[in-house]
Design a protein that fits this description.
By secondary structure, the chain is of the alpha/beta class. The protein has 4 helices and 9 strands, in the order αββαββββαβββα. The protein has helices at about 5-15, 40-45, 110-120, 190-200; strands at about 20-25, 30-35, 55-65, 70-80, 85-90, 95-100, 120-125, 155-160, 165-170. The strands form 3 sheets. It has a 5-stranded mixed beta sheet. Strands 6-7 form a two-stranded parallel sheet. It starts with a helix and ends with a helix.
């Protein structure tokens, strides 16, 4: 396809009922679909001679915890031949299982594992769906908006047990004094010291 407008028309005519919405923004084509049509749509954009989106760049998720369909799944595809990009997305509920793209794009393997680890989204027919960034037995999914900023557990070296242990997070300093001023302006106590010196001189 020579331009995005032609690409948009080609995809809409080739996939008709499988496309919910298309839009051109930021020199990219955004496509919204239903999760049940994912495999058909991806096969079309990869194998069709007028599209040739043969590289999966990334898979990520946007979390909207207040919504019934909590997660927006986002796929980024690149066509080297036409130098064009597609952003494909759809919404799912929290415990929905979605199709894996590993049979079409083997590179999706680790990307889907990362999404599973960080957001808790499960993929059907994935060959090895397990955590990839967090440790064994990790509790929760760190990129969900409701995950606590301090986490659930912390790891430290125990002098008594002579080994690294994992335990519940303890925030021992409930009230801490932080200096939020810019380091370029100098901290408060330095300013006061300079002002006092100026008065003496």
């Amino acid at each position: 396809m020579k331009n995005l407008e032609d690409l948009e028309k080609k995809i809409n005519s080739g996939l008709t009922t499988k496309i919910d919405k298309t839009e051109i923004k930021h020199h990219q084509l955004y496509i919204e679909i239903n999760k049940d049509d994912l495999i058909d749509v991806v096969l079309f954009i990869k194998t069709n001679q007028d599209t040739k989106f043969r590289q999966l760049i990334d898979i990520t998720v946007v979390d909207y915890p207040e919504n019934n369909q909590r997660f927006e799944i986002v796929y980024l595809f690149l066509s080297h031949e036409f130098n064009q990009r597609i952003i494909l997305k759809y919404l799912i509920r929290e415990n929905e299982i979605i199709p894996s793209l590993t049979s079409i794009f083997p590179a999706a393997n680790w990307m889907e594992r990362e999404v599973f680890d960080m957001y808790g989204v499960s993929f059907k027919d994935h060959p090895d769906l397990r955590r990839i960034l967090t440790d064994y037995g990790f509790d929760g999914h760190p990129l969900r908006k409701d995950f606590p900023l301090t986490g659930h557990t912390e790891v430290r070296y125990s002098e008594e047990q002579k080994k690294v242990i994992s335990e519940s997070v303890k925030l021992e300093q409930n009230y801490r004094n932080f200096d939020y001023e810019s380091p370029w302006e100098g901290t408060k106590y330095i300013k006061e010291e300079i002002e006092n010196n100026d008065k003496k001189n």
